């Protein structure tokens, strides 16, 4: 069985073809970073327009790369939510229209289920059950996973997601959009221990997250420490603050992951989403799971951010279970992950 996957939930257009036996046959990703950089963040209307321009050409390229025609496909999967409603509608309408025109099943996919299943694209995959940390610019959540569609939400961010806090703090440090990767790079030059920032909500029970206060603390530190400094002194102070901020986020995520694994009596951890590409986070979680006698799984860096391959894989699992869209489809900008039906 073979399926086309379309991802347009935010500012990246991802297209891929996944084959049940061969794996990923072809994939392309177009990033809109250059489009939104001047605005310091994603402009929803511009994102939607760029998806309109790029989706069909990328689909043609992926079919050509895989040396396939639409007649060689068994379905079309597309992200139906959550995300920016305009961007979602582009992918939904194109995906549903192509499925109708090609006489193929149309499969709506939950964006976060795509991220959660992205590690399944690798050679070494986690066995069920496991705890998943989904961490990106829009979401930070811990989920118990007993099977595809068998999800129990353990905790989530009550305000800013971790990736959002990274981007906002990066902006305070004068870094360009997208700020998360730039902040991580700056942190490599930081002096460990010079500054100490809080590990929010780790001193109380529960598995929810909060990163807005940490972002505010970092902003206060920047204003206090960077007065009347030379250019070189300011550069080093910024790097030290970036290191302290990143370490606070990483420690917070690791503490909550360990707490979730112990609570659920599990030792397998999956991390996915854009922030899962962060090297410090991966190293910390590898140590955390090893101490529990377990292991951490994650997708390769190119599949940590939004991409079509994860949507194609999740769509194939849903297609096999009979999850299909009618001619009337809808985008769901808000969509609870634990509301999905299990795949039998």
Automatic annotation (TrEMBL):
All copies of domain Gcp-like, residue ranges: 24-313
Gene3D superfamilies named among the record's database cross-references: 3.30.420.40
Annotated residues for binding of substrate: 134-138, 167, 180, 278
Major site of localization recorded for this protein: cytoplasm
Cofactor(s), by name: Fe(2+)
Domain of life: Bacteria
Protein name per Swiss-Prot or TrEMBL: tRNA N6-adenosine threonylcarbamoyltransferase
Source organism of this protein record: Litorilituus sediminis
């Amino acid at each position: 069985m073979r399926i086309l996957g379309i991802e347009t939930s935010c500012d990246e257009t991802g297209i891929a073809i996944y084959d049940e036996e061969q794996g990923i046959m072809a994939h392309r990703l177009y990033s809109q970073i250059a489009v939104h950089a001047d605005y310091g963040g994603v402009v929803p209307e511009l994102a939607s327009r760029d998806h309109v321009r790029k989706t069909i050409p990328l689909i043609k390229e992926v079919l050509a790369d895989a040396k396939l025609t639409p007649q060689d496909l068994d379905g079309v999967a597309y992200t139906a939510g959550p995300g920016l409603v305009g961007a979602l509608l582009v992918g939904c309408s194109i995906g549903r229209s192509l499925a109708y025109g090609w006489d193929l099943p149309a499969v709506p996919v939950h964006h976060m289920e795509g991220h959660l299943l992205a590690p399944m694209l690798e050679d070494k995959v986690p066995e069920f059950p496991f705890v998943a940390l989904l961490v990106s610019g829009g979401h930070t959540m811990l989920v118990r996973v007993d099977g595809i569609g068998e999800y129990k939400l353990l905790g989530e961010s009550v305000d800013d997601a971790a990736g959002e806090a990274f981007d906002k703090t990066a902006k305070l440090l004068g870094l360009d959009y997208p700020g998360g990767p730039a902040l991580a790079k700056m942190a490599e030059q930081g002096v460990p221990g010079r500054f100490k920032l809080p590990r929010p909500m780790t001193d109380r029970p529960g598995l929810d997250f909060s990163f807005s206060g940490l972002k505010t603390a970092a902003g206060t530190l920047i204003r206090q420490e960077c007065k009347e400094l030379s250019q070189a002194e300011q550069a080093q102070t910024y790097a030290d603050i970036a290191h302290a901020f990143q370490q606070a986020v990483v420690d917070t995520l690791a503490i909550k992951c360990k707490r979730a694994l112990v609570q659920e009596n599990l030792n397998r951890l999956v991390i996915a989403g854009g922030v899962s590409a962060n090297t410090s986070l991966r190293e910390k979680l590898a140590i955390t799971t090893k101490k529990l006698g377990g292991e951490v799984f994650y997708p390769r860096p190119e599949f940590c951010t939004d991409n079509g391959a994860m949507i194609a894989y999740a769509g194939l699992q849903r297609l096999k279970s009979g999850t299909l869209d009618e001619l009337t489809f809808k985008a769901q900008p808000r969509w609870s992950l634990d509301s999905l039906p299990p795949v039998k």
